[in-house]
Amino acid sequence: MTTLALAHTALTLAWRPFLDPLQIHSLWFVLIVPLALGISIGYRAVRVASFEHFWFKVSVLTVQIVVSMILLGVASYFFIQILVPMLLPMPS
Length: 92
What we know:
Layout: H1 3-12, H2 32-47, H3 54-87
Helix pairs in contact: 2-3
């Protein structure tokens, strides 16, 4: 095989992130904390006047984001599974 053919074969066997995403749908909850941390770092870096106590403020905002997402999930579960069937019962 020529070098060009080997390079083409290696390229076609490579992992393509946008075409072949990882199958980690069952681990979505693990990725909430890094996502919230990244959002907190970016937000605090832009919004603070001084970087004194920066990491404390970032950690507080990260916890607030994660807890808010959990509470929103519980509220939406309650609304969809309990409140909607009480308000709009299915016809028999």
